[in-house]
Design a protein that fits this description.
Length: about 210
C-alpha cells in the first residue's frame, strides 16, 4: 500500500475529511461507520465498473473497508481520504482481476454502465424521456455490448477509461490514483477508446458510435 500515500491535491475533497481521518486514526467506531456510509457506493460502483461482476465488486468493497480499518494508522494525509480509498479500491480490484485471469474468468457477466452527470453517475441511455419498449430494449442491448467490449480491454486500459469517461476524473487525478505518468494515462485512454470504437463499430450497422 506504500504507493497509495503519495502526495495529491484532488479538487473534490469532503469538508469533514480532516476531522474524519483524525477520528478514524483514534479508533472511533462511529467514524468508521461514517466513512463506510460516505464511500461504500463509490467503492462498489468503481469496483463493479472495472471488474464487471457484482459478486466480485461486493467482495472488493468488503476488502477495501477492512484495509481502511487496518491501514488508516499509516495514512499520512498527503492526499484526501477519498483519493486514498480510490487507490485502495483500484489495488484490490487489480489483485482480484489477476486472480480471475489466472483462472480463465467467465465472459458471461454484464455491467450497467453509467455516464457522468452533474449529480454523479446516470445510466447510459438514449436521449428522450418517453422511450418506447423497443428503445428500452435497444438501450439494454447497448449496455450489454459495452460491458462485453469493456471486458476485452486490458485491465489497465479499462481502469483508465472508467476513471476518465465514467468517473469523470482528470488526467492528473488518474495518474496519481494509478501511480503512472500522465503520458501513460493518455496513452491507455486513447488505446482503450480506439479498441472500444473498433469493437462497437458493427453494433449500428457500421455507423460510428
Amino acid at each position: 500500500m506504500s504507493e497509495m500515500t503519495r502526495p495529491i491535491s484532488p479538487e473534490d475533497t469532503f469538508n469533514q475529511g480532516d476531522r474524519l481521518v483524525v477520528s478514524l486514526q483514534e479508533g472511533d467506531e462511529r467514524a468508521f461507520a461514517e466513512a463506510f456510509h460516505l464511500y461504500k457506493d463509490m467503492v462498489y460502483s468503481l469496483a463493479y465498473k472495472v471488474l464487471t461482476n457484482k459478486a466480485e465488486a461486493l467482495d472488493v468493497t468488503q476488502e477495501v473497508f477492512l484495509t481502511v480499518f487496518r491501514k488508516i494508522g499509516s495514512f499520512r494525509a498527503e492526499c484526501s481520504l477519498k483519493t486514498w480509498i480510490y487507490r485502495v479500491t483500484i489495488s484490490h480490484a487489480a489483485s482480484r482481476n489477476r486472480w480471475w485471469k489466472r483462472r480463465f474468468w467467465s465472459r458471461t457477466t454484464s455491467l450497467d454502465l453509467g455516464l457522468q452527470s452533474g449529480n454523479g453517475t446516470r445510466p447510459l441511455d438514449l436521449p428522450g424521456r418517453n422511450r418506447s419498449a423497443a428503445r428500452e430494449c435497444y438501450s439494454k442491448e447497448l449496455r450489454d455490448v459495452l460491458s462485453e467490449s469493456l471486458r476485452q480491454l486490458s485491465f489497465e486500459q479499462r481502469v483508465a477509461v472508467v476513471l476518465c469517461d465514467l468517473e469523470g476524473r482528470t488526467y492528473d487525478e488518474i495518474a496519481e490514483v494509478t501511480g503512472v505518468s500522465i503520458g501513460t494515462v493518455k496513452s491507455r485512454i486513447a488505446r482503450g477508446r480506439e479498441k472500444l470504437r473498433d469493437l462497437l463499430k458493427d453494433f449500428r450497422g457500421g455507423e460510428s458510435l
